[in-house]
Fold:
Amino acid sequence: MLGLMQSQPLLISSLIDFAERHHGDAEIVSRRVEGDIHRYRWRDVAVRARQVAHALDGMNLLFSDRVATLAWNGYRHLELYFGVSGSGRVLHTINPRLHPDQIAWIANHAEDQVLCFDMTFLPLVQAVHARCPTIRQFVALCDPDKLPADSGIPNLVSYEAWIGGQPAAYEWPSFDENSASSMCYTSGTTGNPKAALYSHRSTILHAYAAALPDVMCLSARDAVLPVVPMFHVNAWGIPYSAALVGAKLVFPGPAMDGKSIYELIEAEKVNYAAGVPTVWQMMLGHMKPNNLRFSTLKRTVIGGSACPPAMIHAFRDDYGVEVLHAWGMTEMSPLGTLCTLKNKHLSLPAEEQMKIRLKQGRAIFGVDLKIVGEGGRDLPWDGKTPGDLYVKGPWTVREYFKGEGGDPLVDGWFPTGDVATIDADGYMQITDRSKDVIKSGGEWISTIDVENVAVAHPAVAMAACIGMKHPKWDERPIVAVVKKPGAQLTRDELLAFYEGKVAKWQIPDDVVFVDAIPLGATGKMLKTRLREMLKDYHLPAN
Structure:
């Protein structure tokens, strides 16, 4: 017997229709590439998203054709999120921080038909357009008078001219909710990037889950600043969840420095922000010497890489901001876990609560987790035993676009490449990437633990731990450190700082001071490149 409920496909177009009808006057604020502040409302997003759909129809694009973007967080990018997917095409957000060769390869692999880009990235598009034969239309996200006369790019139009003459009314098509909606290429795999291809169904379910009280807790009362880029796993799904609840959105555009982010938070009364640790490190570095405070910010989601305990303490103790530690990956749309306390934890002392908050958190509904050991055997949830982390659920990939890399699943589970523990309450803690974990004398050393201690030192701006070959112990850890401007710190002083904080055998054998630690396109530390930088390094004799 089937249920007697109405059947309606879960489509992204329903999100923008809902936001227009029920939260039409909620603001969307963007710092533009031009430098000024642009303001309008959800009802305006809806109208212009429909104009985008008309423009794509006018090109005779087929169902599921790919439309690419090279763009910052801003209102035009938001319109593309809904206009492209809502009309049945696939939104393909490309990371502009990638090398031009990678961008050309990705655009060709995706068979992109249209490329929409912010003028910041004009030189990048000029460098790759001739190598992207499938792209029929290049659209600069600007007004007609900002379009260069001699760009050298064929079929280039301004976004405002492209959609400006299109009708405001549009009948969103209805189709199978399992149809592809958007795609993101992950840099976390070996070889060429691989694409996660999201569906309308997976995106809507993820938007619902992300807004839950124990996850991002989003509502129509929030002013949300997604610092996490819209080209990085769809800004963690925040644009979709914001439409679902009618939240105010504040976009930072290209100004990602600490001063600009802080000023935007204050000017727009932002109470909720989301980003990777490197961005917040820059903002906190701007605030402290200038004796600045927050007047409205209450919560921030930090993910992308492990959040150092020192950062959580700084936000909470110095500024009264709650940090929600999150974990996920491109293959998971991206949310997997988020750290919030349970009722039984509320009466615990602050230091005991902090031990929980330092973990990546609990699985949200729609995500299942397990850790496995050798031979694929399930490991206990005791908070101590580390194992390879596996996931599954309705917004986790089952395979990559075009079958790249073969079947990634193991008995229906996706291996994340992370090593983690899970405690009896279901709180997961990443101890390392499987490719980064250090095995010394038969014992595992977590590089994250080593890095967190270093970053807690007041003279340290950034730290990365890697393993070095050792004739007796197989591997021993060293830590590469970037000092804060003007700070003084010696090798011996930092090594002494570790005493009493980790087991003696986990203390690094050496400290290497560097000017910078290489970062990837999403702000993660590139330890492979760091190892190349230190290829001539030898452990000190001991």
Remarks:
- The mean pLDDT is 93.
- The first helix runs from residue 12 to 23.
